[in-house]
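DM between two lab members

TW: hey, do you still have the Diacylglycerol kinase entry open?
JB: yeah, one sec
JB: this one, 539 aa:
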Amino acid sequence: ADWRLALWTLCSVLLPVLLTAWCSLQRARRQLLMRDIFRKSKHDWRYTDLFGQPSYCCVCAQHMLRGAFCGCCGLRVSERCLGAADRRFPCKDIVARTARGPVPHHWVRGNVPLCSLCAVCGQQCGTQPKLCDYRCAWCQYTVHDECMVDCLKTEECTFGEFKDLIIPPYYLSTINQMRKEKRTNYEKVVPSCGKHWMPIIILANTRSGNNMGETLLGEFKMLLNPVQVFDLSKITPAKALQLCTLLPCSAVRVLVCGGDGTVGWVLDAIDEMKIKGQERYIPQVAILPLGTGNDLSNTLGWGAGYAGEVPVEQILRNVMEADGIRLDRWKVQVTNKGYYNLRKPKVFTMNNYFSIGPDALMALNFHAHREKTPSLFSSRIINKAVYFFYGTKDCLVQECKDLNKKVELELDGERIELPNLEGIIVLNIGYWGGGCRLWEGMGDEPYPLARHDDGLLEVVGVHGSFHCAQIQVKLANPVRLGQAHTVRLILKSSKMPMQVDGEPWAQGPCTVTITHKTHALMLYHSGEQTDDDASSLSE
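TW: and the structure you got?
JB:
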């Protein structure tokens, strides 16, 4: 009896362990096979543990909760049918096989978007609980099974609503052929793409702010040609923007999905294009704000932050309708003091603002903690909460007090007498600190309007972190020190926190000189503007 009890005990312990090990081995084997298919496939396969809507396998037509989907054509398939789907269904071609000829519809069966309407009869598609109806991966038209006729399968695709933004596959194949023949007159190909063609390039930073970049990449690849959608974690803006040299001059629009830092990175790459002599290919830049502060995006009417509340289709419509404007860009040169200082001056490019004092200290503390534990700073709300914590701490400690005794300020060569201050902020744009119109304050005093394209900087002082908080809720005005074309600030003693566009550092005695560098071509979305924005643009 004892040996039987021992045997049953051993079985009861070993059996679950062996079963778990076998299941883990099988799952690891399936994942290895999936990764191999993902790597070799022309589809942009991605795996999900839970689909966001009722989904059916394109091969066996069975309902499924998890599986793989193609980020370009929208094909959905279960794990066991992945290999068959990869062999049977082609993805949409980013470059046409022939340089001439129309592009037919690329029909994908089943899993059509919710509330989509049939292009033939006008009734709702995808209402039946099974694999049914068709969607074109280019023009996004949907058609019922019973409405699908032979002529639709061979009909030329018009690329739908966003035909003026899409780079057609036949355009790229024609350009490739011309490059082989060493011809560069690409303008002759443009008329075939339409009179109002304004191709768009998507540059998404998947590491920005609320980590929505990955989702947006897939949605834009579905609506556009995947060749015009770039992940900035895998390719630099400088390389991605070389696509502009194959497109019509002064017609390209770039949508930057990221924070103000990502926008600055892209604008630096555009400045490099000017240096290379590619100025006629310079694109206009729109912003989809995914960062924490997003002050530049707010100034240009694109909002203070994107969290998926606006459909991607509407974002593309906004880019199409946006107006072109200029944005001043400034050179910030920091020269360390000392007779034996042989290091080159630090040189930054400023789009938003420069500051010395409490807000730079908050940014410095925030960045120090984010570098130690980056995984904790994946949410815009958490990021702002951390900023609030350091701002509250500085209200009590006042690490930047008596700044006016430590610095000298010159505006256009004229020395400015400073009152008792803890911080000085030099503004190029209307918004600061995550949505505050700092120069205007409460708006109850007469002041010259701030613009981002007039070659002037606005310089203000603050009495501390508590004063900054009062300005943000419109309970106080800043200390307006003046407007100038050139700003010079001399830090005479001690080490103080400084920042340029949210990039902070601790700086010893030095001279900071801010001068105009260049202009950037931006896109302004009037749909998000406030009364203050409208009045400043009309001046």
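TW: got it. The longest helix spans residues 2-40. The chain has four domains: 38-92, 94-160, 164-321, 331-519.
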